[in-house]
Amino acid sequence: MTAETSQTLDRGLRVLKLLADTDHGLTVTELSNKLGVNRTVVYRLLATLEQHSLVRRDIGGRARVGLGVLQLGRQVHPLVREAALPALRSLAEDVGATAHLTLVDGTEALAVAVVEPTWTDYHVAYRAGFRHPLDRGAAGRAILAARAGRPDDPGYALTHGELEAGASGAAAPLIGVTGIEGSVGVVMLCDSVPERVGPRVVDAAREVSDALR
pTM above the 0.85 mark? Predict the structure, then answer.
């Protein structure tokens, strides 16, 4: 802590981080022990966070992250989209296919940015806001592969016909971006993804990751 920082705000943010790291919530006593402050301070922090819907307490008194955090999270998407657009434009133009940035939203993959190539006669229509299960489509499979840390993975996922008949996809996960799970990919109308596309998608994902750090 420095003279320019707020101790109370710092403690409140630490409470949110602690709650975000657990699936079963934390009691006042547990939070008190982890923060190194007395229970009265924790009660005040929780009461303030509850007023803003950032924390909720269940019947047993355990504190959990509240739904207000989702509202804050939605505001992150425009910032992430803006940072990713240069790499997506370059990818779409280079490959001649629709490029997209996809983030994890609960148990689904959510396309938050899409760029279509300008020079092709036709391409796959793929809109921002499109959702699909994480275990279907290249975008979700790339994210799951990164979660699993597969050492034999080539760094990208390839699929065909899983989300749209006749369409193939390639995607690579974002790496080293704190607090964000996602992937960068392309979708194209073809029976198989050309060999050079996989490595090109990996490069684009690395560019986006660098822009978000």
Answer: no
